[in-house]
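Handover notes (outgoing to incoming on-call)

Open items:
1. Crp/Fnr family transcriptional regulator: sequence verified, structure written out, both below. Nothing else pending on this one.
2. Nothing else urgent.
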Amino acid sequence: MSIFIEDDISDLYLKMLNDKGIKIIFNKNDEIISQGKFVDNLYLIEDGYVKLSMISDVGKMHIIGFCGMLSWFGENFYFNNGGKSNFFVQAFSEVKCLVFRHEMVRSFMANYEISLSIYKSLIKKNVLVEDKIKNLSFFDTRQRISWVLKCLIDRFGIQEKEGILINFPITRQDLADLSSSSIEAVDVFIRKAKNNGMIDRKDGFILIKNRNLIQFY
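Crp/Fnr family transcriptional regulator structure tokens:
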């Protein structure tokens, strides 16, 4: 299980698509797609990360995961010939994208590898949602926060003398949203872990000083 979707497509096919899309740069926190709104573009990330979220019926925002370099989003456009988005998509960093409209998409969808990569990307997003539901159903708050930290270590962990540095700009609120916990619960988790010498901050990033912190209980 992971919270990151990356490398849906190879550099080779990115080069093929370069002259077919419109290059757009989104700034951090820009809203790209609103949940429930009509989607008529297909996006391919060249650099940066977007945050995928879903808003519950009671208005609570749940971060499902992140899409990174060479991953697609806005697949509703391809599979439904336009349709409402299941996700709220927001730029988590500066994001460089190739954006494809209807007429552009027709020019490359006959390519089997490209079409397959888009289909697989949609499946990956469905898996993110399933993992979210499993975590809520079977894990307590501590386990969910630990699982998020483990995903971050697996993708961005750098071994240093003091421990493992998570080289990704995650905030307390992000941890709360990703683990479907309250920010108060995250604060309690971090405070206890810090008092036990298991976690710290270094240059604004999370430093895991003891891997026992991310074990499931």
